[in-house]
Amino acid sequence: MRIAIASDHAAVALKADLATWLREQGHAVDDLGPDTTDSVDYPDYGYKLAAAIAEGRADKGVALCGSGIGISIAVNRNPACRAALVSEPLSAALSREHNDANVVALGARLVGPDMAKAILTAFLATEFGGDRHARRVGKLSNPPVSA
To answer: Which of 3, 25, 63, 105 is in the most buried spot, having the most CB atoms within 10 Å?
Structure first.
């Protein structure tokens, strides 16, 4: 699987650890940065990750920042992306099964490396359930003009 991974400065160490681990699992990983802990703006990296998904350069994405909140908001600005902020494996699996999430977001200050790997294992192993969920997922990328 082709996986794009991006973070802000708060999650550089976790990003590097996960990128190495994902490669060891046999995935092609595109590390979109940053490479240092110098302060950066998480939206810039969330947008890079979203573009990789939207343009088909990656099948799935991993978005990381201190809390996971900011970068997940940035990724979700792109209608091709469905980023789910999760902190444990069950939510990761349900985000795939029910919401066809194509990006998982994690908070590096909240989730350690072992839990992050367990989350990614569940996220990458779970297929979209389709059926009744497909109609709902279709609405996520096509919101009504006024609700």
So the answer is: 63
